[in-house]
Amino acid sequence: MKGSVKKDKKTGKYFYIVDIGIDPLTGKRKQEKKRGFITKKEAENALTKLLSEVNTGIYVEPSKLS
Q1: Any idea where the AP2-like integrase N-terminal domain is (predicted)?
Q2: What is the pLDDT of residues 4-47, one digit of tens each?
Q3: Cα 66-21-38 angle, rounded to 5 deg
Q4: What is the 3-state secondary structure (H, E, C) of the chain?
């Protein structure tokens, strides 16, 4: 799994983007993005936590149903 932390130039806040694999139904790449971190360290910690959940198999993709 790959992930990166970047800084939003407009807001000055940090966000991460993670590749979480290929969707078996559509064959398209799936990514998880989370925004709004004040510091780079906060974004890195959240990224590390998400990557460990994906690698151990406990990650549950958020549902788009309300």
Answers
A1: 13-58
A2: 999 999 999 999 999 888 888 899 998 989 999 999 999 999 99
A3: 65
A4: CCEEEEECCCCCCEEEEEEEEECCCCCCEEEEEEEEECCHHHHHHHHHHHHHHHHHCCCCCCCCCC
Instruction: Please state, in angstroms and as integers, the Cα–Cα distance from residue 22 to each residue in 1, 25, 39, 44, 49, following that order.
Output: 11, 9, 30, 23, 20
Q: Are 8 and 14 a contacting pair, CB within 8 Å?
A: yes
Q: What are the residues whose beta carbons fall under 8 Å from the beta carbon of 6, sequence distance 6 or more?
A: 14, 15, 16, 17
The upper half-sphere exposure of residue 58, i.e. CA atoms within 13 Å in the direction of its Cβ, equals 6
* pLDDT single digits (tens) 5-14: 999 999 999 9
